[in-house]
Amino acid sequence: PQGASRVRQWVAVWEPSKYALDLFKQALQQQGIQILGETKTGKVPKKARRITSHHSMPLSELMIPFMKLSNNGHGETLIKEMGRTAGREGSWDQGLEVLNKELQGFGMDTEKLVLRDGSGISHINLISADQITKLLYSVQEEKWFPSFARSLPVAGESDRMVGGTLR
Asked: Alpha-carbon distance 80 to 85, whole Å?
């Protein structure tokens, strides 16, 4: 209503790729660009031509908004990128396969985990406190651990980029 304060609401998006495609189509249409043919998600056809690319900030910097703000879109993108880089394709299945292999290397018993997505949105995801403790203990000496530790929300800190979801 007029004079009311602005409200921002965060929502979970089940298929971020399809959502991004829909937003892209809407933006093109608003500029008067007509889309011919069908748009779909999946593997990029061999005859496709790249029209632009974008490189994100380094993962060490990306971890802060991802972890502190619980940015599920980042989680989904990262798990798919793991599948694309270390597996066969950029999909949840391939990303989760790569993740499970990495977690085993840190001493986690992946038979005791249930992982269905990269963000933790799925109500089916299950990780016990014991397994998280094993992971946190075993990664303390990794070269990337300081970046990871900085990305964790700090309870009671009012700055969003420090306290995150625990502010």
From this structure: 9
Question: pTM for the complete prediction?
Answer: 0.72
Q: How many CB atoms lie within 10 A of CB 95?
A: 26
Q: Which amino acid is at 71?
A: N
Could you list the pLDDT tens digit for every one of the 167 residues in the chain? 678 888 877 776 777 778 888 898 999 999 999 988 888 777 788 899 998 999 989 999 999 999 999 888 889 889 999 999 997 888 889 999 999 999 999 999 999 999 988 888 788 889 999 999 999 999 999 999 999 999 999 999 999 999 999 99
Radius of gyration of the chain (CA): 19
The residue with tokens 């993740």 is 99
